[in-house]
Please model this.
Amino acid sequence: MLLANARSRSERRAVRGSMKWTAVVSVVLVGVLLTSAPATGQKKDFETLPPAETKLSPSLQGGSLTSLKDSVDVIVQFSSDSGRFSSTVAATSFQAKHFEPFDSMHMAVMSVPARALKQLAQHRGVRFVSRDSVIRSYSYAAKVTARHPRSLFDFRHTGDGVDIAIVDSGIEEHDDIPRHWASVDATRWPVREGVDADDDNGHGTHIAGTIGGSSWHPSYGGFAPEAWLLSVKALRVDGSGKTSDVIRALDWILANSHRYDGIEVVNLSLGKAVEERAEDDPLVQAVERLWDAGIVVVCSAGNYGRSGNFTVTSPGNSRKVITVGSVTDRGTAHNWSDDYPSTYSSQGPTLYDQVLKPDLLAPGNRVMGAAEEDSYLAERLSSRCHEMDEDCDYLELSGTSMAAGIVSATVALMLEDDRSLTPDTIKARLMKTARPIAGSATKVGAGVLDIMSAIDSNVTVSSALSPLLRISESGELLVEDTSNLWGPAFTVESIYGDGFLWSDRAPTSDGFLWSDGFLWSDGFLWSDAFLWSDGFLWSDGFLWSDMVGADDPLFRTSRQSLDLNDDQ
Model:
């Protein structure tokens, strides 16, 4: 690669510039050739399309497939001209063994031979083809004796009447979780309603307890104990599932959002590797459909922060949704001076798009929540259980999963106070009122959740897109000006802090300049050997999914690998 041979920063910048120019010219020429070429001998569906590689996820290109004969499960996003794409077309033209359309998402999951992928991508009705990747929950085991962060707050609201859909491993019957939640099983097609979708993993029950548990014990209850919880099972016994399972769940929620008094919040304490740009990521597109329909979507950032930057997972890489990282409290009650972002909490910016994430932090370390005694987690983490009778009634876990649940509960409290709030306004209020905490914005976002201030806030916005990070021509790291994104009152300083995160606060046309010595140092974020190297982000042979898949401690068997919380 030319880039690999360009050693100095200026040389690489010049190469990148020439590469961008070449790509633009190539696209123009291809477009001219395709549109002017005669259709003789060609099928009409493939007549005016760009090369297939431009509509295939990087994870489906090159040497990432072991054999062209192997079947690959893919998620196909359709364009507006997809009327003729059907199960018959999938079977006859692409030898698909399985074809499942989503009702509201303009997508389908298919199983096709790898050799048919390029032809599939060239179909006129196809917008993009992604791998149906593994997705998993985000929690780690923790040691008992910590108290639930709920004890830090004096609530005036309970989430009464607000419906929250929890897309997870299910919700088991528990004394703390009232029997007014419905149950849906989205792990198979078609989605089954009104079934007893047991939580054989235990993660979903813990999240439900964190959000809406009604325990008499002040350390074990949820933040919105009177919210109505809807269980949408998308993860299996080991806490994993397929991307299509989660999209199937979101598709069902979108189609049925008017039921159960109106689903207003969706909690996604799960994620997968970022394998393509957000605009091409089917999971991102699915959550954004819900967001645009007026449903608040809260996502965990991921538990890969110990691997550094670019570790935020999908769908938390969406610019629209609320992406939550974890903060560790040392157990000093109202003394916040010793709090710090949890070491495992994933860091931004996002891969491919460089979105500044997470949006904010919430308590996620050593959270006690409802447990299912016969679940995967309770059996393997019995030493983390707390027994009220003779069973494992409560389980203590750490992770951005728990942090996301606490933010979802806060959203319910905000909606109880004002049912007219839009998803964007809720996100803006959460970020605007977040409590400052030391650290890079790529680690802490706007700061730590402040529940009471968020409820009391009266700011409104029409859009609250998370800002982008970019490198200027002179090599400076810039953040997109939020006053242009959200409104004049929402400067970068007012959201992300003044004086402890940003350097010389001289505005530029693109936003505010970060200090040269903080994130620009060699060996850290935008260094010679990291972002622009030939062995990491822009390489031919490295996919972040490989690292994420190997780094998830819930899929290891040793006790040591499960103890990755920040001990207090």
Observations:
- Residues 1-49, 141-148, 499-564 have pLDDT under 50 and may be disordered.
- The chain has three domains: 2-36, 44-132, 136-456.
